[in-house]
Amino acid sequence: MLSILRIKEEKDALLPLYLHQPYRLQMGGHFLSDETWSHMDRTITDYELIIGVAGVVFLEADGRMYEVQAGDILLLMPGERHRGYRLSSPGVSFYWFHFLIPDPPTGDPAGRIPRYARCPNPSRAHILARQLLHAANGGYRIPEAGDYFLTCLLIELADQLQESGGRPALPSQLHELLAWIRLHALERQISVERIARHMGYNKDYLSRMFKRRFGSGLLDYIHSLKLEAAKEMLAGGNLGIKEIADRVGFGDDKQFAKWFKRLAGVTPTAYRQAFGHTRLNNT
């Protein structure tokens, strides 16, 4: 198998494409969420190709942050921790394929694929992705059909993106900002002022920068983290409403209930009755 270290050295630039053997498909699918969603926190042992179809997937991979929009691709590498860093809106959709690469031959690769890029002609990639899923689901009698359709898809991407140097991840300052907010979002003392002080920014500048970059306010982001944590506790545990309120930074459970109903559209009790003992869609 091709050395993982060799690929990791190129992970911020280009994935080499060798064509002496087909790339080996492990599994794949077309993900679509009808509710807010964030990718689970995990580390994989193979490669994963993500192709954006609709909405935005917010992914942190190996300490770098990416926004996968319609027509974008992102390659995730073996041994690399990745997770969602922000909720995607309902309707987010993407193709995903896990694969292994063949033993490398001597000589140069036939092409290279940027780790993170936007396809000039995404419809062609989507057509091949659908054909690949058809093959992966037993649509062909030839068992290796999925491997060859995967290789065709990678050839298509390498051809479309041969002049592309890829797109950069989000700046490291934004990664530090979001990581710090996630760590402290449930604290009662969390505020825009405290975040700005920690990051060394003017509060108004930080608020404007955040909204310009992410399309929503910094306080809205904090509330979304608190809300998802409260939903998780309501749906998956036996904690009382008062204790959940305290854990997400509310000293008054009545204030928490009013806040929860305003954002979620139902009371905490009604949410628990509807979704109790289920898990949120975070895979």
TrEMBL record:
InterPro entries: AraC-bd, Homeodomain-like_sf, HTH-like, HTH_AraC, HTH_AraC-typ_CS, Tscrpt_reg_AraC-type_HTH. SMART domains: HTH_ARAC. GO terms for molecular function: DNA-binding transcription factor activity; sequence-specific DNA binding. PROSITE patterns: HTH_ARAC_FAMILY_1, HTH_ARAC_FAMILY_2. This is Helix-turn-helix transcriptional regulator. Residues 175-274 form the HTH araC/xylS-type domain. Keywords: DNA-binding, Transcription, Transcription regulation.
